[in-house]
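Lab notes, practical 5.
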Amino acid sequence: MNEWLNVIFRWTHLAAGVMWIGHLWFFNFVNAQLAKTYDPDSRKKVLPELMPRALYWFRWGAAYTWITGILLLFLVYWFGGVMVNPEQKMGPHAAGGIGLVLIVVGFFVYDVLWKSLKNEKAGAAISFVLVAVFAYVLTRFMSGRAMYIHVGGLLGTIMAANVWMRIWPAQRKIIAGVKGTAPAPDASVVALAGLRSKHNTYMSMPLMFIMVSNHFPTLYGSDLNWVILMVLVAVGWGVTKLLYQKSATPAPAQF
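Output from the prediction step:
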């Protein structure tokens, strides 16, 4: 039964994740550039048809990715014997419970931080340091493998919460404004949706590595596993920056 549940949850997790991240990248690397070419008539015709359809798969992909991720966390880590190292004194359920609490707290810290900060570079630097602290703290009471997946859980939870609590509500107002069924939203609503979508795009790259990190015991088993992870997070953010830059060039639009 454990093996069958593992297969079902992992397959669903992967399929939902592809659906979610695929639409996220479409929004940020394709549609964001295409939308700049719309005239008012095109915008009024295309957006009310395109965005609700795309956002349907986007938000439900996020939901099922997060739900199956939590189920896998319970199955593989809480009950799978890899939550803590033999020499660590804390039990797997206690370590997992603390990890989940810290993940939830992490979203609220992130949300408050980015509501109060106006400088993106400063926010990125502070966020990087906070993730590093989060990773290091986890190594004190859980295994390196579990620490990696909990950092992934933090990023995934922030991303999913962004989708359902920030991006989707803002997009509903934007779409209604374009259709004329509601007043045009304040510029801050548009900015919020764009910023949180951008954050999700940057978090998606390291998150995808963390999803397969259990295959690399040399990394998570190192004494400096949290340092290695943060280097890879920085690399993921750098690659995402390059993708944003490439999307803004004429090359992707060439036939």
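Observations recorded by the TA: The chain has a mean pLDDT of 95. The chain has eight helices and no strands.
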